[in-house]
Amino acid sequence: MKNPNIDSGNPVKIGISACLLGKRVRYDGKDSLDPYIVNTIGRYVTFVPVCPEYEAGFGIPRQPMILYGDVERPRLLIKKTQEDVTEKLHSWALKKIKVLKDERLMGYIFKSKSPSCGKHGVKVYDGRGHVVRRGAGIFKSIFQNSLPLIPVVDEQEFHNSGIRDDFFISVFLIKRWYQTCDGRKGLKAIRSFHKENRLILFSKSPGTLREMDALIHRHKSFSKGHREYVELLSRIIGMRSTMARHVKIMKKIIRSLTNSLSERERELIQESIEHYRRGIIPFLMVLTLINHYSKKYQREDLLKECYINPNPLELILRNHA
């Protein structure tokens, strides 16, 4: 059951392989229900289910499919008959992408190991039936090439707390992008987005952030500046935040609070950061402490940073709901 009080006016929309929601659309007529995704995460987000093989018209049940040939451009074959059905799935996928663009998805959870949906590690066979490489599913590759801003994970990655936390950081980054910059609102909107999310961008890639900084200062033309900024944002979405960068950011925040914090307060935050670095406490415990002192000392400049003062729903989901 959804919580009706959490951001109901602007829901977080997540695309997902339909079988993970318990829909019986697998090749064998079964599902791949993930209770945690459905019962816990599903209380706070709106899922948009997709099953490429079923929706493309292959039926239920259906013959198992495999990937064949070049790992970068694999073909999709019916395993038993070796019939090549790549074009059928590809044609459907291009139409489906147009529909999903209108959904304004903020993330996508793929079914692992699937020849259509697998994010990585899907077996790719040669003509003798040997696994020669491992790659990505056909639909997943088309999706990510068409919608590069959308963060993606598979359900196995989603059960890793660090990957899940980083996924939701990216989900809410895209949510704010839609709210601030979508719909040709000008370079002023991009600069506002960039300033408010700068620490998040740093946590993912300081190098890409420097390119973004240079772009922001260089461009006066909206169309060209917008296009290049989206390309860099797409790149950074696919990168993971690291503990080392989180620690660096938090130490920088402490320095900016130095004149306000008491000696004991400063020691408390420093101890918390060290405990986080050693894996004793989660990152969000330190973030909560920094947020508290930013509010206590009325540091509006810090509270405007989405890294320090995230959306309440983001905190719930990053705290593993």
In short:
The chain has 15 helices and eight strands.
How would you describe what is shown here?
The structure is a single chain. The chain is of the alpha/beta class. The protein has helices at 35-40, 52-58, 86-103, 138-146, 155-158, 161-181, 187-196, 198-204, 206-218, 222-237, 243-257, 263-277, 283-296, 300-303, 312-318, and strands spanning 13-17, 46-50, 65-68, 75-78, 107-110, 122-125, 131-135, 152-154. The chain has three domains: 13-158, no CATH class; 161-237, no CATH class; 243-318, no CATH class. The chain has a four-stranded parallel β-sheet. A hairpin with a 6-residue loop joins strand 3 (65-68) and strand 4. The longest helix has 21 residues, at 161-181.
Could you outline the blueprint of secondary structure elements for this entry?
Layout: E1 13-17, H1 35-40, E2 46-50, H2 52-58, E3 65-68, E4 75-78, H3 86-103, E5 107-110, E6 122-125, E7 131-135, H4 138-146, E8 152-154, H5 155-158, H6 161-181, H7 187-196, H8 198-204, H9 206-218, H10 222-237, H11 243-257, H12 263-277, H13 283-296, H14 300-303, H15 312-318
Parallel strand pairs: 1-2, 1-5, 3-6, 5-8
Antiparallel strand pairs: 3-4, 6-7
Helix pairs in contact: 2-3, 3-4, 6-7, 8-9, 9-10, 11-12, 11-13, 12-13
Give me some keywords for this one.
4-stranded parallel β-sheet; 321 residues; single chain; 4-stranded mixed β-sheet; alpha/beta
Strand order of the largest sheet: 2-1-5-8
Separation, N- and C-terminal Cα atoms:
13 Å
List SSEs in N-to-C order: EHEHEEHEEEHEHHHHHHHHHHH
According to DSSP, the number of beta strands is 8
Question: Strand content of the residues, in percent?
Answer: 5-15%
Structural class: alpha/beta
* Uncertain ranges: none
How many independent structural domains?
3
Looking at the structure, what is the overall shape?
elongated
Tell me the helix content. 40-55%
Mean pLDDT: 92
- How many separate helices? 15
